[in-house]
Amino acid sequence: MTIRRNFTASVRENALALYERHASLPIIDYHGHLPPARLASNAHFRDLSELWIEGDHYKWRAMRIAGEREDLCTGSASPKERFDAWARTITRMASSPMQAWCQIELKRTFGITAPLTPSSAECIWEEANAMLATEDFLPRKLLARAGVEVLCTTDDPADQLEAHRQLAEDQGVSFRVFPTFRPDSALCLHSSQNFHDWRSRLEACSGIAVESLPTFMEALRVRYEFFHKLGCRVSDHGLDRCYATPCSDAEATTIFSRLLLNSSDIGAADLEKWRSWFMRQIAEWNHESGWTMMLHLGARRNNNTRIFSSYGLDAGCDSIGDFPQGETLVAFLDQLDTSERLPKTILFNSNPRDTLMFATIAGSFWGEGIRGKVQHGPPWWFLDQLYGIEEHLNAQCATGVLGTFVGMASDSRSFLSTARHEYFRKALTLKLAEDLESGLFNPDQVDIDELCRDLFYVNAQSFFGWKGAHGNS
After folding, report:
1. EC number(s) in its UniProt entry (predicted)?
2. Which has the closest alpha carbon to 167: 29, 42, 40, 44?
3. Which of 31, 32, 114, 162 allows an S-S link to 412, with CB 3.0 to 4.6 Å?
4. Would you call 6 exposed, middle or buried from its count of C-beta atoms within 10 A (0-12, 13-18, 19+)?
């Protein structure tokens, strides 16, 4: 990765002025993991630990590395003990994006400017908890005050979406909340018991008995259309890599039939075929319905068997994966493009070695009249830091059209994660101010303010087509 240069005083001054001119633009957070039920109930947070640390595997990972006990992360430690452990950890995280995020989160949410340390922890704990007990710090108020206009959650097809239905009907919500359709469980035929448990949930919420591949796809389609009625316009997929092995409808039917018979002989080759077939079906649905497909590629998940066995998914034991990406990604996109079934697509890469490759693959597929039909998505997960953001923007500038970029998503793990939008926006304005001073673009040819507005907000609003609160989508 490129080591960042020291910015001149004029670059810093110009970058800050550029950021502040557009800081009030709304946030369209099109990928995150906030629980919609908490927004629907709008219940008070018990304390700062519940708001800030519970469920945030970014923090758990850091706490473990710093030597803190596991019960302070995923166990039964008290909220104050958990918070104190985080205060000890953050002081060891020099130059970490998490220090910057936490500083933004405390300042923007509570007006607290003191850095979190073991010595300041007690005061910050008491001050923040007192504010959390008031009506101004309910979940919806936190997001509205942060400038959120649209928020997307990540939802399984077998989720009932009751919270989303309540939010859609509640005229008191000042922003839109939409589900995203994440059918990853349909790819896991190799885990027969887990698949059958999920299938039962799917049958219950769709009202369709899954007795064959056609009835399985019918049940999924029922859920897909229900998601659509609640404003969903995005399918989301967490894959190690794309799948593009040819698989006919007859072959997919045979593979699925063996699964229904509780066969245990679905090997790697058949699993590859099934995943290729299934992903193409969802992509074609998206094309027909005008949805966007988000492909989160390359993460290696659940590395620690002990933690996975005791806690489960999303425990903070994941890493960048070493999967080959280019060949199958191109094959998948090309199959869809050749058949004129390629939906709008956002590609997220996990491994920094793939950043430039993803940017150039995205630029190989387009749609007339659509600005950036296939997007190189924002720097994600381990790349959501200054070096990763810089490399991502450099790739966009060098091989694509930066002005079509759809902008940042928080991948939120807490109700304060919108701070990552501010972090990204400031990193972006630093790059633009530096490039302008270096003469890399002509201000008479590129309107830097218009470019900022597009990258902060306008491109995302146009790409997804979502309106403000209770507007038509």
Report:
1. 5.3.1.12
2. 40
3. 32
4. exposed
Residue for token pair 């309107």: 447
179 close to 153: Cβ distance less than 8 angstroms: yes
- What is the rounded distance in angstroms from the CA atom of residue 276 to the CA atom of residue 248? 10
- 152: amino acid identity, one letter: C
Give the C-alpha separation, 256 to 213, whole Å. 6
- Distance in angstroms (rounded) separating the CA atoms of residues 416 and 106: 9
pLDDT, one tens digit per residue, over 384-438 is: 999 999 999 999 999 999 999 999 999 998 999 999 999 999 999 999 999 999 9
The two structure tokens encoding residue 377: 């998505």
Which residues, at least 6 apart from 104, have a Cβ–Cβ distance to it below 8 Å?
419, 422, 423
Confidence category of residue 468, pLDDT binned at 50, 70, 90: low
Q: How far is CA 308 from CA 56, 130, 311, 338, 389, in A?
A: 16, 35, 5, 41, 30
Lowest mean pLDDT among 10-14, 93-97, 205-209, 262-266: 262-266
Per residue in 150-172, pLDDT (tens digit) is 999 999 999 999 999 999 999 99
Q: In what order do the strands lie in the sheet with 344-349?
A: 234-239, 292-297, 344-349, 374-376
Nearest Cα to Cα of residue 298 among 417, 381, 198? 381
Residues 6+ apart with CB under 8 A from 39: 139, 140, 143, 151, 163, 167, 173, 177
- Non-local (6+) Cβ contacts of 382 within 8 A are 319, 320, 350, 388
Condensed to tens digits (0 to 9), the pLDDT of residues 99-130 reads 999 999 999 999 999 999 999 999 999 999 99
Please list, residue by residue across 117-149, b when 16 or more beta carbons sit within 10 angstroms of its beta carbon and e when fewer do.
eeeebeebbebbbeebeeeebbbbebbeebbbb
Residue 312: what pLDDT?
83
